[in-house]
Amino acid sequence: MAQQIVVHPRDPRGAGDASEPDERHTTHVRTQPQQTGDAGVEGGHGEAGDRRAHDEVDPVERYAGCLGGLGQRPGAERDPVLDEGVVGLAEGPQRGQLRQRHGQVPGLDTAVGVQAPQQLRPRSGQPGDLREARRQVTLVVFVLRDHPVRRKDAAGSRPYGMHVFSLAWVLLGSCHPVPTLIVSALTGLLSQAMGLGTGATILVILAVLTGQLSIGWSNDVFDADRDAAAGRGDKPLASDHGHRPVVRAAAALALAATIALSLALGARAGLTHLVFGVASGWAYNAWLKATMCSWLPFLLAFGTLPQVVALTAGRLAPAWVSVTAGLLGVAAHAVNVLPDIADDRLTGLRGLGPRLGERGVRLLATAALIAAITTVLLSADLPTGTALATAAAAAGGGVAALFGSGKVPFLALGSLALVVAALMLSYL
């Protein structure tokens, strides 16, 4: 009958004779049941939960194969009956790694190849008991190795792909995407209305877009602690402290980009955009937001946007267009602060919203939009029917904005803003 191979994790001799009783903890070397009841190869944990702390590992992959190289390592004893002639060794195409930890087999080659089970065959000239070993006795070796796809990143917290996705989500959520896209789209429409070519239109859109990105990212960087105190779930940096430096760097890069792109529009157009558009936005984020004059940067930025586009074409826009756009910006600011009044009061931010209250902010937004519509009606050459319909829409929207409840005021103000933008672009 074939002798048993018992592999002990802390036995410096590697493999020993099964006749010597030993109760020590063994490594993950198991034997599949034999078909005739012959003595097999023992090893491994007796139970699924029988595991010691020193050899506990997280299995990633398991490979079935032959246990090779025991007799070739220092400190491992050759079995008097079985050797390389008995257990056929073959180098598999995959090379495993066995973590060297406390309690593992010191003589096991960490780079041993594994492949399909091999049959035991008797050594030439050794008939007898070994013939019974021809029945397929399979050694199953669990080879643990770090799979590159599942390897954790340097932080050790989650896979690298998840960090990339998380960073992209933070950058998108903290750039104020909706206002950024609206202002960029308005810039493109103004460019087409003023007859700019395709190249100039793309350039001015990129200049405004990067400027809005720098303002949006810097806004959330400045407000990160305040948003965290207010429990703002819609602000990524309120809960994600680790990405704050990245967003700060993104704001700086966007600022550098908008400076270069703005100056490419020409000296007058570029400086107008940088001073009244970008600088006023950063001033709002850093200081003016907490004052009664928080509306001023919006008046300047929106009011000068038509001039930036016109100066790119080498001319000036009509004055009524700048007045209308500026009033539209004030209304946009009022609508924007409406949902934040409670949070601003909670964190001690004394801007326009907390000072005027919800009713006062509604009144300001409605008045600014009615004034913008009136400016268009008085300045542009509108047909009588269009003028009457516009006046009726303004009156109805104003009533809904002032006396409506729920989302009605917000929808009414948004509709009035669209009317103002459409009139301004149509009769520019």
UniProtKB/TrEMBL annotation:
What highest taxon heads this organism's lineage?
A: Bacteria
Q: Which UniProt keywords apply?
A: Membrane, Transmembrane, Transmembrane helix
Gene3D superfamilies, A to Z: UbiA prenyltransferase
Compartments where found: Membrane
Bilayer-crossing residues are 160-183, 189-209, 245-265, 319-339, 360-380, 386-403, 410-427
Question: What does the record say about its membrane topology?
Answer: Multi-pass membrane protein
Question: Where do the coiled-coil regions begin and end?
Answer: none
Region (Disordered) residue ranges read 1-57
A Gene Ontology molecular-function term?
Answer: transferase activity, transferring alkyl or aryl (other than methyl) groups
Q: Which GO terms describe its cellular component?
A: membrane
Q: Where is the composition biased (Basic and acidic residues)?
A: 44-57
Name this protein carries in UniProt: Putative integral membrane protein (Modular protein)
Question: What organism does the UniProt record list as the source?
Answer: Nostocoides australiense Ben110
Q: What is the lineage of its organism?
A: Bacteria, Bacillati, Actinomycetota, Actinomycetes, Micrococcales
